[in-house]
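Here we describe the complex-level prediction in full. Unlike the single-chain runs in Section 2.1, the two entities below were treated as one system.
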Amino acid sequence: MKIDEPKKGFSISVTGSMAGVREALTQIRNQLSDLGISENTCGTVELVLAEAMNNIAEHAYEPESPGQLHICARVSPSFLRFDLQDFGKPLPDQGLALGKLPDHNVPVHDLPEGGFGWFLIRTLAASVKYRRENEKNQLTLSFPRKNMGKCNL
Amino acid sequence: MDLQSTYHNNLNIITVKDARIDASVAIRFKDAMRAATNEGPPLVVLNLGNVTFVDSSGLGAIIASMKQLDSNRKLDLACLTPDVAKVFRLTRMDSIFDIHENIESLKCRAAG
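The structure predicted for the assembly as a whole is:
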């Protein structure tokens, strides 16, 4: 597939497995640093992309037979945009989870050990869009380059 | 998962040697923590000074590590790097754990 070359950006393809996700995150962090993106922004992007790609590795693909995961990054002076594409199962009900923060006002033994992923994605990304098309999942995540995220973290 | 466990009087400090606690190592981390905290003093401090990245699976494994301790024992955290501190702050888990800025003052307190 030919992707139009933006002024700045890069594309990465990895296996949609846990190991592949780790490899992609390392490459993305290095590329973003090379493009002069701040450490704070890099950290936020790495966390959100980790959550989104872990979902693909854990839910879209079967762990024993992961397919490809493509990441296309575009960097403009004001925005970072990432398109994640996989060929696995669609998101349940063809939609995005609301990402509510699990209740933490509970006894220690009832504390949640999961359910934070979509909350982190929703909190830190400025926009999250999902499309199912031609047996492909396309997730687009955008971040402003300044005042990262919606809650100025 | 490489954990280093040291004892300072009534304090058990467990230092994570790896730089990442993520989905690919979360189960191994939890198992290594269970082995490391099988017995020992009431206060266990997890030194995360070498850890630059924790995702939600890693966070879940750290919470599980606290939950698998006996009820009379406690897990504190120390030396959170900026990206790791952000995960705890966003998920409000910074209100669940006692978080120490550095390990030396804790050792002094344990010795004193």
